[in-house]
TrEMBL record:
Record's subunit section: Homodimer.
Keyword annotations of the record: Aminotransferase, Pyridoxal phosphate, Transferase
An annotated GO cellular component: cytosol
GO annotation terms (biological process): aspartate biosynthetic process
Cofactor(s) listed in the protein's UniProt record: pyridoxal 5'-phosphate
The keyword Cytoplasm is annotated on this UniProt entry: no
Database matches in CDD domains: AAT_like
Misc note: In eukaryotes there are cytoplasmic, mitochondrial and chloroplastic isozymes.
PROSITE patterns: AA_TRANSFER_CLASS_1
Name used for this protein in its record: Aspartate aminotransferase
Length: 409
């Protein structure tokens, strides 16, 4: 029989453990700044109005059924998903240099990309280590190591400035062996909320080109960083224009509020060349084999919702409006939190709260301060001091600022 006695107890996932502790807390003052899911000003999950509309369209379709999707997913979604990232008139799409597969949200997309690289990233002498930012979304570590690709980190967050450690990042990318796989957050970096500027992206691209590094973009917050879908896709579009061969993991969890529906895509983009379309066809055929053995075919419900919105100009415009509502409320909360801390004269500088963007802010609070906030004030955040800005609202922001003020003093 299977000797299961040797299986050790694994630790609970820290983020989901935090969510459980929050739920069990009976204090009326409790505040959830842990999980990265959007909340409205009443601290409630927000079903995007445009998603409600798409849902009604879907439900009233007499032809709708529960059949399987093709292995690569819903084509009306994957084609629009690629356009959303690369632009409607992207040469890479016109030249058939893109292969897109619908995945189990962003996590599944990162995993499929990792599996694909584990199987095929075998250029002569190339380094198979995946370089991720320090810090990064914790799941990156286990997703890549699970498929046998080792992880190394490049400096990213400067603790002094609470901004980008650009020199450290460049030095690490410059000294990584040529042809290394570099994981990049396209926008709204998780957990820090710190993104390179357009000028810094240009430097990163030119350095990576010189080093023949392979870009692996993870984009889970398009439209959340600036509120503008095109602007948030800027770094990806720039790299594609520079002629990189690259891959992209794309999540629709946050920007559509389709968290539990697991809608996302994985994209491969070939470098421009005379046989790029042929290479892309072969890549797509291998992605299909991997997908078939892993999940057979992806879930249909969230894919249909996103597809309805992406394929209808009026609904698309409404989606952009919904995105501005979410990103606007988050920016408002950044201003209020910083304003209150400054009004209280809380020791330290708090400009990083409004300098950082996207769903998260890396506050700079120590682990001890984070624990004190939890035990004394029922405020929950990850122990690295990351807060989900969406957990703040007009009723709790002063309470949170006052509590932070007390634990910092
Ligand atoms: N990448 C990053 C950087 C993320 O923050 C997330 C969401 N926490 C994901 C990928 C994937 O999330 P999901 O699988 O829910 O789409």
């Amino acid at each position: 029989s299977f000797p299961a006695e040797v299986v050790p107890q694994a630790p609970e996932d820290p983020l989901f453990g935090l969510m459980r502790a929050y739920k069990a807390d009976s204090s009326p003052d409790k505040v959830d700044l842990g999980i990265g899911a959007y909340r409205d000003d009443n601290a409630k999950p927000w079903v995007l109005p445009v998603v409600k509309k798409a849902d009604e369209i879907l439900r009233s379709d007499p032809e709708a059924n529960h059949e399987y999707l093709p292995i690569a997913g819903l084509a009306s979604l994957t084609s629009k998903a690629a356009e959303l990232l690369l632009g409607n008139s992207a040469p890479a799409i016109a030249e058939k240099r893109t292969a897109s597969v619908q995945t189990i949200s962003g996590t599944g997309a990162v995993h499929l990309g990792a599996l694909f690289l584990a199987k095929f990233y075998k250029i002569q002498g190339a380094n198979r280590t995946v370089y991720v930012s320090n810090p990064t979304w914790a799941n990156h570590h286990q997703i890549f190591t699970n498929v046998g690709l080792p992880i190394a980190t490049y400096p990213y967050f400067n603790k002094e400035t609470k901004g980008l450690d650009f020199d450290g990042m460049k030095k690490a990318l410059g000294s990584a062996p040529d042809g290394s796989i570099i994981l990049l957050h396209a926008c709204a970096h998780n957990p820090t909320g710190v993104d390179p500027t357009p000028e810094q992206w240009r430097e990163i691209a030119s350095l990576m080109k010189e080093k023949k590094h392979f870009p692996f973009f993870d984009t889970a917050y398009q439209g959340f960083a600036s509120g503008d879908l095109d602007r948030d896709a800027g770094p990806i579009r720039f790299f594609v224009e520079q002629g990189f061969e690259l891959v992209i993991a794309q999540s629709f969890a946050k920007n559509f509020g389709l968290y539990g529906e697991r809608a996302g895509c994985f994209h491969y983009v070939a470098a421009p060349s005379s046989n790029a379309a042929e290479i892309t066809t072969r890549v797509a055929s291998q992605l299909a084999i991997l997908q078939r053995s892993e999940i057979s075919n992806p879930p249909i419900y969230g894919a249909r919702i996103a597809s309805i919105v992406l394929n209808d100009p009026a609904l698309f415009a409404e989606w952009q409006e919904n995105l501005r509502t979410m990103s606007g409320r988050i920016i408002d909360m950044r201003n209020k939190l910083r304003g209150k801390l400054e009004e209280l004269g809380t020791p330290g500088e708090w400009n990083h709260i409004t300098d950082q963007i996207g769903m998260f802010s890396f506050t700079g609070l120590s682990e001890a301060q984070v624990l004190k906030l939890r035990t004394d004030y029922h405020i929950y955040m990850t122990k690295n001091g990351r807060i989900s800005m969406a957990g703040l609202n007009s009723r709790n922001v002063d309470y949170v600022a006052t509590a932070v003020d007390k634990v910092v003093r």
